[in-house]
Amino acid sequence: MALQMSSRAAAPAVARAAHSCAAGDRCSLLGEQDTFARRHIGPRDEEVPQMLQMINKNYRTLDDLSNAAIPPSIQTKGKRMDVGEGRGEQELLDELLAIARENKTFKSFIGQGYYGTITPQVILRNVLQNPSWYTPYTPYQAEVSQGRLEAMLAYQTVVSDLTGMDISTCSLLDEATAGAEAMRMCQLHVKSKSPAFFVSSGVHRQVTDVIRTRSGPLGIEVIEGDAASFDFGSLRGRLVGALVQYPDTFGTVEDYTDVTKRVHDAGALMVASADLLALTMLREPSTFGADVVIGSSGRFGCPMGFGGPHAGFLATRDELKRVMPGRIIGLSKDVSGKPAYRMALQTREQHIRREKASSNICTAAALMAQVAAFYSMYHGPKGLRAIAQGVHAKACILAEGLKRRGIDIKSGAFFDTIVVELGSESAAKEVHHRARDAQMNLRDLGCSVGVSLDETTTLCDVARLIEVISGQPCTSVEDLVKSVGAADFCDALRRKTPYLQHPTFNRYHSETEMMRYLRRLNVKDVGLDTAMIPLGSCTMKLNAASVMAPMTWPEFANVHPFAPEDQVQGYIKMIKGLENDLCQITGFSGCSLQPNSGAAGEYAGLMTIRSYLRANGQGHRDICLIPISAHGTNPASSALAGLKPVIIACDHNGNIDLEDLKKKAREHKDKLAAIMMTYPSTHGVYEDTFKEAAEVVHSYGGCVYMDGANMNAQVGLIKPVELGADVCHLNLHKTFAIPHGGGGPGIGPICANEKLAPYMPGHSCRDVGMRASGHSGAVSAAPYGSADALPLSWMYARMLGTPGLKKATQAAILNANYMAARLKPYYKILYTGPNGLVAHEFILDLRPFKPAVEAEDVAKRLVDYGFHAPTMSFPVPGTLMVEPTESESLQELDRFCDAMIAIRREIDAVVKGDYDRVDNPLKNAPHTVEELVSDSWMHKYPREVAAFPVRSLRAASGAKYFATCKRVDNQWGDLNLYATFPHADCC
């Protein structure tokens, strides 16, 4: 029975027998109208000449501009990339659906951390298929993010309540990487010169694999064993933590009170990987003394999707919050004293602590965390428990039905999973054959089979499972239902404390109320459906509706990541096609799609380098050169990969200081492992020294890692392999149009040359291609990471095709340079490259206006003009970094420029004294409707100036965005951290 996802009411027709075309013609349902490039790329062809004239009167074509901006030595000279000529939207949707239907969506009972779920249609349509939810960026600007911040605080509340812990992150990448992050927490907190970490043999295999990958560079010894009998005291002084699964991978539910005591007596922390749905019935891990609880919220409305995306979680005790990874949402207040949400503690902590950061987590899985939160609200505490009781009851009925037929059940206490002992591998194979004939997948455990039930399991499924496993008929399970009754647990395992008591989880159980609540939240935020999001370095291009559509198709959504190879041929075909496209674009020979974030891609690339060096007798090399301008995740990733960052200076133009690079490369020549370079530079400039820098590093035996965060300024014009890079990562959630969704999902695949490709991540649960025996190990739970989001990039690349991808890059360069040219008379453009041009982004220097006006004042004032602010104070404090992307129209570019020019006039008024230095529209921004309609207006400027600073806003007042809170007090929020809903009226 297929997972109950979207019915695809207007599914594309796969076969169009009546449609024919002449030989050599491109078949397209609507001809020239059905083209993606003309819908996605903002500037119209007839507008390009006037934009070029604004930049430089000598530029006649987009080629003129890109040739002038990119140094000739950098431009690609090799074989032209080939991803096709571009396809119509409907035509490509038809083709992808045909590929998707090559997957066999058998009913999965494999479990192992992945379960079927039902995404409520009100959430599917109003969140996953709604640009108000999937297009907003990470909420660095809290005032325009109150809706999704509330949703993520709700997620934290769900996790904290169900686990019984004090504080939770607002999402991690998946269960396995959350386990690795917990291990790192234990290491940071306990501290040992020769640390060891215990992993129970009952932990899911993929979790253990990722922990092993991550442990090596950190110098942690991983020890596996039976937690019940292991002598933790023998590791006193070395043991930093222990991990158990609850329930374990074989379904067994154990009371870990004694294990926890022995772990604590050894001076270590206890980590539990828990099932959130089971915790509605089972004792919460806090009651047996767990210090950290991790897991996945996938079964809360997020389909399996061949491995993800799913929101991982990590919850802990309050005293450990300073070593937590990732982001935490907290409740603070705005300057008027009104409650307001914001990111707390870990906000971009890598840019502050760099290699000393507790983790490299940046993008996580925020959109899926929001789905899980809304799923919890829609069902409420009673509904969640009812779902759990139904799953458990069906598992009990299955076990009883098999026992009555003489089948041995190995499991003791269990929640949703049983292990059936069959005596021999041949007997087990017979069961698997019968299961496949019945279009079911069971877990292969040698002489046993594992069966995991979930929300989608019906009584009919249970009857068929009894027949398949026993080989005996089962016409009805009604008698079993009566005999099993209301399944529950013994007193020692039963949950006794309430959860999700806050009104938010007890108010929205009807579709009407849920729909209205979701609407109330999304109008509080700025997404791409509201206005441009000009975040430099973050590439907030539109995630087109045709690109997003395949993510919810059942043929992709309902596939277990460990399903048999012959059932996932559609996925494999799509994945191999995307890998080939990315290799064509970068010039590399190999690709791994496993890393499920950009920072995970950085880590995977560096681990690939380390594995290659070890295999070639150079394992002692551990120095990584990193320019001071690099993204903060670069030094954090290098430290987690066991490399020692050495910082390279930049010159006054923001370029890598070649002399400093040569000096430090020579100084560390015997231990030099790699250099990490971003291209174009983080300063938004096409440097002409990349090749020379790469040659220096290669001459001393090191490898070159290219940070591909800015790949959208390269595609079709530059190939990283020709620059001298050995490996690079690509942010599919940036360049290739996977949604940010308020902070994820993200995907950060790596591409590598022939010498490094065999050492890219492998996986023990599935063959992911030719890998050397010394490959770098798994870096995420699933073999292909967040595979359900990969069709989005497959669609994006192939709809644009070779010419469209190149034009998109040139349009991004055009838009950035047009805006820079318009704003240059009003603000200093901090860095420029060849011919005074920028790449795809540029930095506005606001430091000359200090102390009268700060960069933050301009960022908040932009909200009154209806815009999300650019990236603030990165990579240079006191600046704004602007990136328009290729998908913004000339009208929107001008609207933003008009706003910035108007703000410059306001700055001048403050500097000249026409506005009060404290009470002015900039310092008081943003202005809320509540403030504007108040009977009391105490400011020294008119309400109209606050609300409608330019005429265009007044003309379109019905659509103007208003922030729902004033400037948020970040310091108060850190000093008074509330990371769950603390009281009934907070929302």
From TrEMBL:
Domain of life: Eukaryota
Pfam families: GcvP2_C (PF21478), GDC-P (PF02347)
Entry's localization field: Mitochondrion
CDD domains: GDC-P
Main location: mitochondrion
Domain (Glycine dehydrogenase C-terminal): residue spans on this chain: 808-927
Task of the protein: The glycine cleavage system catalyzes the degradation of glycine.
Subunit structure: The glycine cleavage system is composed of four proteins: P, T, L and H.
Protein's name according to its UniProt entry: Glycine cleavage system P protein
Organism: Mastigamoeba balamuthi
Lineage: Eukaryota, Amoebozoa, Evosea, Archamoebae, Mastigamoebida
